[in-house]
């Protein structure tokens, strides 16, 4: 009975936490139109969340594309369809690997930075000082960071996919000997607008989810060093689980 009671309590706590996150999201959405008028703050947060993540995104995209080129060539070679490597690599990157891997990397780099920054502001009473001065910290501090992550995520996913396709072409064409014309022509013929739209929708939703989790955990972090550390850890773990769960739901919905 004690095990069942603990499971039930865990379920109730999870539902309460989910409700708090949804309420926090609605609070952010209310302030979004006003935050868009402060263009300089949004640009600064896009730079922090996006531009500072470019190196790891580009390197990861290149290596993922190269691995995809190797594995795809070995698989397609069994069926005598090596020329379809471009189509297989592009669809895999645009629809799945690009949005998912970018979201995981985004959570590990930009998400932890957002959570630790807001958690440190909570621990040093900067957020409480804003509230005492009748300045809403959610409107002033949280919303620009949330929008910066939401805007940066689709751009990073697009860069990841482009670099990944180049990596697959580098292996398939330059090393494995796939015909360059067949690689690009079959990719253009095999990838349609629906595949691209699926990748864009996934990256946008993943951006909202990862940014929301990061700012929520940071804003409500316990104002101690250990609390900030736990918030950063929860940001990465929760973001990874949510991204994979949403990826399944979105893939099923598009099918």
Q: Could you give a quick summary of the protein structure above?
A:
By secondary structure, this protein is mainly α.
Features of the shown structure:
255 residues, single chain, 87% helix, mainly alpha, 9 helices
Write the layout of secondary structure elements.
Elements: H1 2-36, H2 39-49, H3 54-77, H4 85-123, H5 126-132, H6 137-175, H7 180-190, H8 193-219, H9 225-254
Helix pairs in contact: 1-6, 2-6, 3-4, 3-6, 4-6, 4-7, 4-8, 4-9, 6-8, 8-9
Q: Note poorly predicted spans.
A: none
Number of helices: 9
Content-based structural category: mainly alpha
Total strands: the figure is 0
Overall form: elongated
Helical amount: over 70%
Relative strand content:
under 5%
Termini separation: 42 Å
Largest sheet, in brief, is: none
- Please state the average pLDDT score: 89
Number of domains: 1
Please give the radius of gyration in angstroms: 21 Å
Q: Write the element-wise H/E pattern from the N-terminal end onward.
A: HHHHHHHHH
